[in-house]
Specification:
The complex is a heterodimer. By secondary structure, chain A is mainly α. Among the domains of chain A are: about 80 residues, Up-down Bundle (Four Helix Bundle (Hemerythrin (Met), subunit A)); about 25 residues; about 30 residues. Chain A contains ten helices and no strands. Chain B has one domain. Helices cover about 75% and strands about 0% of the residues of chain B. In chain B, strand 3 and strand 4 form a beta hairpin. The two termini of chain B are about 40 Å apart. The chains are: A mainly alpha, B mainly alpha. Chains A and B meet through helix 8 of A and helix 2, helix 5 and helix 6 of B. Chain A: InterPro entries: NADH_UbQ/plastoQ_OxRdtase_su6, Nuo/plastoQ_OxRdtase_6_NuoJ. Chain A: Belongs to the complex I subunit 6 family. Chain A: It comes from Methylobacterium symbioticum.
C-alpha cells in the first residue's frame, strides 16, 4: 500500500510539474518533450488504478503518434512562439476572468458529484462477475463479439480515408529519377563497360 | 468453452455487403499493383461486384425479417428493395463515368473503388437497426462521396464542390451525433426496437430536441429545405457522372435511412416528427419549383429538381401510414429512373472534348438527335408529372396516401407546386423542339446508352405493367409495420 502511494505521489507530482513546464518552457521542442513526460506519468497513474489497457493506449496513441507528430510540426514549421506570446499581457485580464469562471463551474459540478455505487461495482456489463479477467481481455471480448460489426465498419471508414488522401494528393511528377533495382541487377559487363583503345596523344571522345 | 460456430453471428443476411467489401479489397490490391493500367479492369470488376450483389439482394427471401450482429443489422423487405435501388444507382454511376473520365484525363482506378465503398456505406444505412450502425454507414458513404466530389482535383470548381460538401457534411454529421446522443441519453438505448419499447406518446423535451437534430441531419443528407444550400453548388461543381451518382444512389439511401429512423424507431411519437416532415416537404417542393425557374445550367436545374422531388417523396413519409411508405418507395424507384435517364443525356452533350451544360445548348436537339430529344422530353414530362408517364403515378401514390391520412392541405400544395415545376421542365422541351438547332453532338457513349435505354423503358412503359414495381414497394412498406 505504501509503495503504491509513493508511486502515486511520484507520478502525480511529475505529471503536474511537467504539465507546468509545457506552458512555461521557452523552447517549443522542450515543451513537447515535457508533454510526452506528462503523458507517460498519466499512463503510470492509470496502471496504479488497474486500467492497464488505457495506460498502454495512452503510450501508443499519444506518446507514439500524437506527440511525435507535434514534434515534427514544431520542428518543421518555423513558428515564432515569442511573437505568439506578444499579446500575453494585454489578454491576461479577459483570459484570466474566463479561466476563473470555468474553475468555479468545475468546482460547483464536482462538488455536488455523487457516483452511483452500482456503477463502481459493474464497470463492464458483459463480463461475468467474479471472472478474473484483465480489462484488455474484457474489452476484446465485447469488441470482437458484440461490436464486431461496428469494428469492421470503422475499419472500412479508415480505408476510405486512406484512399481519399491518396486520390486527392498523390501526384505523378514527371522527370523524377527513381531507383529500379531490377534494372540495376540486370546490368552486365557488356551493357555497362566499354573498352576503348586510346590512341597515344589523342585522347578519347566522351 | 464455446465453440467457434456458436460464437459466430448469423452472416447470411450480410452476404451482399461481404461480397462488396471483400471484392473491393481485391480490386484495391489489383489497382495498387498494376497502377493506372488497371483502370479498365477495376471498372469492370466493380461493375460485376455491384451486379452480383444486386442479384443476391433480389434473391433474398421476401417477407422475412432477420436481425443479426447483436441486433445492429436488419434485413427485411424494405431493406431489400432500397438496397436493390442503391446498387442500380451505383452501377449506373460507373457505366456513365467511363467515357467522361477518359476524355477529361482523370480516368483513375480509385473512382469505381470509392463508388463501391460508398455503396457499402449506403447498404449499411439502409439496413441499420441501431443508431451506431446508422452513423457508421452514413459516415462511410459521406467520406467516399466527399472524395469523389473533388475527383477532378485540377479543376477549381470540382475541388470547391468537394470542400463545400465536406465542411457542410461534417457539420450535419455532428448534428446527427448530437441528436443521437440526446435520444440515447433519454431512452438509455441505441437500438431501434429498444427505443420503440421505451418511448410513448408523451415524450420529454430531450427526446423532442434529439429528434429535431436528427431530422436536420437527415434533411441535409437528402438535400431537403432548409438544409439544401450545398446541393446546387456541389451538383454544378462535381464532374457530371459524379453529379449523376449524387442525385441517384445516395438519395435512395438517405430517404431509406429517414424512413427507417422515423417509422422504425419513432413510430409512437409520430405527432412530434410529423410536423417537421410536413414543413420540410412543403418547403422543399416550393423551393424546388420556384428557384429552378431562373436556372440556366442544366446541372443546377437537376439539383433543384432533386430538392423538389425529395419534397414530394417526403409527403408519403409525412402520412406515416403503410400506404405512405409504399408511395415513398414507388417515388424513389421512378425518381431513380428519371434522374439517371436525364443525366445519361446530359453526359452526351459533347462536341470534341468540350462538354456543354447550359440549357440553351439543347436547342433544336429534336432535329439533330431526334431519339435523344424524345427520351429527354419523356423524362421531363415525367418529372413534371404528366400522365401516362411514370412520374405521374409516383406523385399519384404519395398524394393519395396523404389525402387518406388527412393531410389534404399538404397534397394540395404538392399539386400546386408540381404545376409550377411543370413550367421549367416544359421549357426544356420547348427549347429542344422549337428553337433553332445547333451543331450536332457526338454519338452517345455505350454506357450512357445502356442507362438511358433502361430508364426510358421504366419511365415510358410503367403504366403498361405497374404491378411488379408497385408490388415490390407494397411488400417493402408492409415489412415496416
Amino acid at each position: 500500500m505504501t509503495a503504491a502511494a509513493a508511486f502515486f505521489y511520484l507520478f502525480a507530482g511529475v505529471a503536474i510539474a511537467s504539465g507546468f513546464m509545457v506552458i512555461a518552457s521557452r523552447n517549443p521542442v522542450t515543451s513537447v518533450l515535457f508533454l510526452i513526460l506528462a503523458f507517460v506519468n498519466a499512463a503510470g497513474l492509470f496502471v496504479l488504478m488497474g486500467a492497464e489497457f488505457l495506460a498502454m493506449i495512452l503510450i501508443v496513441v499519444y506518446v507514439g503518434a500524437v506527440a511525435v507528430l507535434f514534434l515534427f510540426v514544431v520542428m518543421m514549421l518555423d513558428v515564432d512562439f515569442a511573437e505568439l506570446r506578444n499579446g500575453f499581457q494585454r489578454y491576461l485580464p479577459v483570459g484570466g476572468l474566463i479561466g476563473v469562471v470555468f474553475l468555479i463551474e468545475i468546482l460547483l459540478v464536482v462538488g455536488s458529484w455523487t457516483i452511483d455505487p452500482g456503477l463502481v461495482q459493474a464497470p463492464l456489463g458483459n463480463v461475468a462477475a467474479g471472472e478474473n479477467m484483465t480489462n484488455t481481455a474484457a474489452l476484446g471480448r465485447v469488441l470482437y463479439t458484440e461490436y464486431v460489426y461496428f469494428f469492421q465498419l470503422a475499419g472500412l471508414i479508415l480505408l476510405v480515408a486512406m484512399i481519399g488522401a491518396i486520390v486527392l494528393t498523390l501526384r505523378d511528377r514527371p522527370g523524377v529519377k527513381r531507383q529500379n533495382i531490377a534494372v540495376q541487377n540486370a546490368r552486365t559487363q557488356a551493357t555497362a563497360v566499354e573498352t576503348i583503345k586510346v590512341p597515344s596523344r589523342q585522347g578519347v571522345e566522351v | 468453452m464455446p465453440t467457434v460456430h456458436s460464437v459466430l453471428p448469423t452472416l447470411a443476411p450480410l452476404i451482399p455487403e461481404i461480397i462488396l467489401s471483400v471484392g473491393v479489397m481485391v480490386l484495391i490490391l489489383y489497382g495498387a499493383f498494376r497502377g493506372e493500367r488497371s483502370t479498365e479492369g477495376v471498372n469492370v470488376g466493380a461493375l460485376i461486384l455491384l451486379v452480383l450483389a444486386f442479384f443476391v439482394v433480389i434473391g433474398q427471401a421476401p417477407g422475412t425479417k432477420v436481425t443479426t450482429l447483436s441486433g445492429a443489422f436488419i434485413q427485411d423487405g424494405f431493406a431489400k428493395v432500397m438496397k436493390a435501388l442503391v446498387l442500380l444507382g451505383s452501377a449506373a454511376a460507373i457505366l456513365l463515368s467511363r467515357d467522361y473520365f477518359q476524355r477529361a484525363r482523370i480516368d483513375r482506378f480509385e473512382y469505381p473503388i470509392l463508388i463501391v465503398l460508398c455503396t457499402i456505406g449506403m447498404m449499411v444505412m439502409v439496413s441499420a437497426n441501431d443508431l451506431i450502425a446508422l452513423y457508421l454507414g452514413l459516415e462511410l458513404q459521406s467520406l467516399a462521396a466527399y472524395v469523389i466530389a473533388s475527383f477532378h482535383r485540377d479543376d477549381l470548381k470540382s475541388t470547391e464542390a468537394g470542400l463545400k460538401y465536406f465542411v457542410l457534411g461534417a457539420l450535419s454529421s455532428g448534428m446527427l451525433l448530437y441528436g443521437a446522443s440526446l435520444i440515447y441519453g433519454f431512452t438509455g438505448t441505441v437500438s431501434f426496437p429498444g427505443i420503440v419499447s421505451v418511448l410513448n406518446e408523451n415524450a420529454g423535451f430531450g427526446i423532442v430536441l434529439g429528434i429535431v437534430f436528427v431530422a436536420a441531419a437527415m434533411a441535409f443528407k437528402m438535400s431537403a429545405v432548409p438544409f439544401h444550400m450545398w446541393t446546387p453548388d456541389v451538383y454544378e461543381g462535381s464532374p457530371t457522372p459524379v453529379t449523376a451518382f449524387f442525385a441517384s444512389a445516395p438519395k435512395m439511401a438517405a430517404v431509406a435511412m429517414t424512413v427507417r429512423v422515423f417509422i422504425g424507431a419513432l413510430p409512437d411519437v409520430t405527432a412530434i416528427w410529423q410536423q417537421i416532415i410536413v414543413f420540410i416537404a412543403i418547403a422543399s417542393m416550393a423551393l424546388g419549383s420556384f428557384a429552378a425557374i431562373g436556372q440556366r445550367n442544366i446541372k443546377r436545374l437537376m439539383a433543384y429538381s432533386s430538392i423538389g422531388n425529395i419534397g414530394y417523396a417526403l409527403i408519403g413519409l409525412a402520412a406515416g401510414s403503410e400506404e405512405g411508405i409504399r408511395g415513398v418507395v414507388i417515388y424513389m424507384i421512378i425518381y431513380l429512373a428519371m434522374t439517371l435517364g436525364a443525366f445519361a443525356i446530359i453526359l452526351s452533350m459533347r462536341r470534341r472534348d468540350e462538354m456543354f451544360e447550359s440549357i440553351e445548348d439543347l436547342s433544336g436537339l429534336s432535329r439533330t438527335h431526334p431519339w435523344m430529344a424524345f427520351c429527354l422530353a419523356m423524362m421531363m414530362f415525367s418529372l413534371a408529372g404528366i400522365p401516362p408517364l411514370a412520374g405521374f403515378f409516383a406523385k399519384f401514390y404519395v398524394f393519395a396516401a396523404a389525402i387518406k391520412a388527412g393531410l389534404v392541405v399538404l397534397a394540395v400544395i404538392g399539386v400546386v407546386t408540381s404545376v409550377v415545376g411543370a413550367y421549367y421542365y416544359l421549357r426544356v422541351v420547348r427549347i429542344m423542339y422549337f428553337d433553332e438547332p445547333k451543331a450536332p453532338y457526338e454519338a452517345m457513349p455505350a454506357g450512357s446508352l445502356i442507362v438511358l435505354t433502361l430508364s426510358s423503358i421504366v419511365v415510358i412503359l410503367f403504366w403498361l405493367l405497374p404491378s411488379p414495381l408497385v408490388g415490390a414497394a407494397g411488400a417493402a412498406a408492409k415489412s415496416l409495420f
